[in-house]
Amino acid sequence: MVVGTSSLLHAGYHHPATRPWQSERAITKSALIYPIFISDNPDDKYEIKSMPEQYRWGVNRLEEFLSPLVKKGLRSVMLFGVVKPESKDPTASIADTEKNPVIQAIGIIKYKFPSLHIGCDVCLCDYTSHGHCGVLFEDGTINNPESVKRLVELAVAYAKAGADCVAPSDMMDGRMKAIKEGLLAANLSHRVSLMAYSAKFASGMYGPFRDACDSAPTFGDRRCYQLPPNARGLARRALARDANEGADFLMVKPALPYLDIIRDAKEDFPNHPIACYQVSGEYSMIWRSAEAGVLDLKRMVFETLESMLRAGATVILTYYTPRMLEWLDELDQ
Ligand SMILES: NCc1[nH]cc(CCC(=O)O)c1CC(=O)O
Ligand SMILES: [Zn+2]
Ligand SMILES: [Zn+2]
């Protein structure tokens, strides 16, 4: 029986050289952002139990940590602060001071690795005693105006310290516009970009991260500001809100279970780079199943990251960045 010739597809991807031709886009090192944890203990190299191979790094050890990665082609990092409980209070007072290890780290990284792009996660939860992402009213609900005020102060402090990009992950209303105006007033808006964690869902996959930052809320949860997982329309509105307020980059988070949202973001905002965050839980799921011999680590990481590109992402935040830098080199050989 003769089949229609247009139904014959195998030949087009039989040879390894032709497979990349079928892929719309291949992963490159420049597409990756590595999220890293900066500890307030300057000599720390503390392994995060729920995130194998990921550490909290003290500022004195950043050079030994980053230097091999920069040599392998690392282009961009996203910094998160980890401070001891005694340093936390209800309004995250230390966050915009020199006591915040992130502010110290920015200076060190800029000095040692001038070409590395430095992004800073902007949120209060790493520094608040209650562990929520904003300032609270007495009844425990979010005081949005006060929260935004503090977020602007943090973002401007990071920008003044030398950050290239500030990335608010708090999900408060109106923070992008306020931060943009804050940067403008500080004469920094021309060189500091805004990456919006716009479609950030109230996910069960942040557990290992909260472990890493010791930032789990002490009461309640984040469902009043992070999006319900099945809320596609609301996610679109959140993306639109942040785009209209002046975000340079729009992010979807987590990534793999939200590929449709990445696609929505790309369709609604074709002229914005779309970022996505392969979060701590995604990292650990892949890691643990590989460790158990169920899945192959390298194949899973490539497949998941390629899915994100296919969905429409341009930039991917992933804890697999160090592995990817090595694997991408192997591909070239
Ligand atoms: N502002 C909080 C924040 N910043 C980054 C992550 C998650 C990152 C990850 O899981 O890798 C979270 C989530 C949360 O605790 O709600
Ligand atoms: Zn937060
Ligand atoms: Zn948050």
TrEMBL record:
Q: Quote the EC number.
A: 4.2.1.24
Question: Which superkingdom is the protein from?
Answer: Eukaryota
The pathway entry for this protein reads as: Porphyrin-containing compound metabolism; protoporphyrin-IX biosynthesis; coproporphyrinogen-III from 5-aminolevulinate: step 1/4
Q: Name one GO biological process term.
A: heme biosynthetic process
Binding of 5-aminolevulinate 1 occurs at 210, 222
Got a GO cellular component term for this one?
A: cytosol
Residues binding 5-aminolevulinate 2? 280, 319
UniProt function note: Catalyzes an early step in the biosynthesis of tetrapyrroles. Binds two molecules of 5-aminolevulinate per subunit, each at a distinct site, and catalyzes their condensation to form porphobilinogen.
What family does this chain come from, according to its entry? Belongs to the ALAD family.
State how it assembles.
Homooctamer.
What name goes with this protein?
A: Delta-aminolevulinic acid dehydratase
Provenance organism: Mycoemilia scoparia
